[in-house]
Specification:
Elements: H1 3-14, E1 25-27, E2 37-38, H2 41-53, E3 55-64, E4 74-82, E5 85-89, H3 98-103, E6 108-111, H4 114-123, E7 130-133, H5 134-141, H6 148-156, E8 158-160, H7 176-187, H8 189-203, H9 206-218, H10 241-261, H11 265-268, H12 271-280, H13 285-289, H14 300-315, H15 337-340, H16 342-362, H17 366-369, H18 372-380, H19 391-400, H20 405-421
Parallel strand pairs: 1-8, 2-5, 3-6, 6-7
Antiparallel strand pairs: 3-4, 4-5
Helix pairs in contact: 5-8, 6-8, 10-12, 10-14, 16-18, 16-20, 19-20
Protein name: Ribonuclease D
Region (Disordered): 1-33, 316-343
Organism: Streptomyces iconiensis
Length: 423
């Protein structure tokens, strides 16, 4: 058998079973029907007591109104636990769920794509101490499609109806079809968790997954993003600093309006309209109204508001204009490495190739084996100083970059070789 055949055989042996099999069974109704939405303190107290007395992991999900409302707050929280059934809680009517959180504090939470829901859950007092992320488990197990619907279908043989994922969940009252969809999202989460735990155990990856879940549960809330206006879509067209100042002033003005009105910023003024104004630098509101995004439907008061932001940017002293780019926190973009530091570029090429090969051997995504940012930072400033990198110094560097022990165990030797070979 050739080396390639041996690798293919090993991959096949540890790949998750994804046999298409029979057609999936449509899951149309929750087992106990659609539960009533919890909107009062008394109802919340009864649910809290029921979940405290129930057993086993608790499935948790949250629905936001992205694209409709300002921010990422939760507008519905779904929970399910054996012995308590499913609960749908309205966090607008019941904004403090810390009591419910305390009732399930020692319980493992099962979420799908946990990092998406944890920020909005923290805002209402819910913070897991232990969790199982079914999306991340699917990635580690080597599933090609890890959306909840695809995972439930491939692993459990049921088809979830996913037609309401992008609706405006701030709507009140919530329509019955939306509530059915929300309840079904947690209906099989614990079943999926159990099947994936068994799959990971068979592949020898369960402890890896547990390290990943623990890292998510213990991670602090991320700090606010610096200069978020720089992420305006189409920003690459804006070259001059004065134009960048227009983007900044319009972005900040739009954000204040969106926050005050509690609507998505894109519904107040589109990113494309911000960029158009920055490029044109209109001299007055009439000229602004002729630009795309500032048409006849926009009132004079709104036009004056946006034009005032443009004028503020025009009047800024040169010293207060934004810089062309932020001071980089870390290595420069890899595309410039060959010119700035050819040795670092060679290290990066060797390290990337080694990590990619190992990820393929383990049948998991490269970014889950080791984050690309960690690889870049390691290659730009390799540890070890004049003595050169060693497995000990490379391991310590990876820990400092936040790598988990299983990731270090799988990559430290090959990274040490890659870094040393280019010295």
């Amino acid at each position: 058998m050739t080396d390639a055949q041996e690798t293919a055989s090993a991959n096949a042996a540890q790949a998750p079973l994804q046999d298409p099999g029979p057609a999936p069974v449509p899951l149309l109704e929750p087992r106990e029907g659609i539960p009533p939405v919890i909107v009062t303190d008394d109802e919340l107290a009864r649910v809290t007591s029921a979940f405290a007395e129930a057993t086993g992991p608790v499935a948790v999900d949250a629905e936001r109104a992205s694209g409709y409302r300002y921010g990422q707050r939760a507008y519905l929280v779904q929970l399910r636990r054996q012995g308590a059934g499913t609960a749908l809680v309205d966090p607008v009517a019941c904004p403090d769920l810390s009591g419910l959180d305390a009732a399930i504090a020692d319980t493992e939470w099962v979420l799908h794509a946990a990092t998406q829901d944890l920020p909005c859950l923290r805002e209402i007092g819910m913070r897991p101490t232990r969790l199982f992320d079914t999306e991340l488990a699917g990635r580690l197990a080597g599933f090609a499609r890890v959306g909840l619907g695809a995972m439930v279908e491939n692993v459990l043989g049921y088809a979830l109806e996913k037609g309401h994922s992008a609706v405006d969940w701030s709507t009140r009252p919530l329509p019955e079809p939306w509530l059915r969809y929300a309840a079904l999202d947690v209906e099989l989460l614990v079943d999926l968790r159990d099947a994936l735990e068994e799959e990971l155990e068979q592949q020898g990856k369960l402890e890896w997954a547990r390290e990943e879940f623990a890292a998510i549960a213990s991670a602090p809330a991320p700090p606010p993003r610096k200069d978020p206006w720089r992420r305006t879509s189409g920003m690459h067209k804006v070259r001059r600093r004065r134009q960048m100042a227009v983007v900044r002033e319009l972005w900040l003005a739009r954000d204040a309006v969106a926050q005050r009105r509690d609507v998505s910023p894109g519904k107040v003024l589109t990113d494309a309209a911000i960029v158009e104004a920055a490029l044109a630098m209109p001299p007055h509101a009439r000229a602004l109204s002729a630009l795309p995004g500032y048409g006849q439907r926009m009132g004079r008061k709104q036009l004056d508001q946006w034009q005032a932001a443009v004028e503020r940017a025009k009047e800024l002293p040169e010293a207060e204009l934004p810089q062309q780019s932020q001071v980089p926190n870390g290595p420069p973009p890899p595309r410039s490495w060959a010119e700035k530091d050819p040795a670092a570029a060679a290290r990066l090429t060797a390290a990337r190739a080694a990590v990619t090969e190992r990820a393929e051997e383990l049948n998991l995504p490269q970014e889950n084996l080791l984050s690309p940012d960690s690889v870049r930072r390691l290659c730009w400033e390799p540890p070890g100083g004049g003595d050169g990198p060693s497995e000990e110094t490379v391991g310590e560097a990876l820990r400092g970059l936040g790598a988990r022990e299983w990731q270090i165990g799988q990559t430290v030797e090959l990274l040490t070789v890659a870094l040393s070979a280019t010295e």
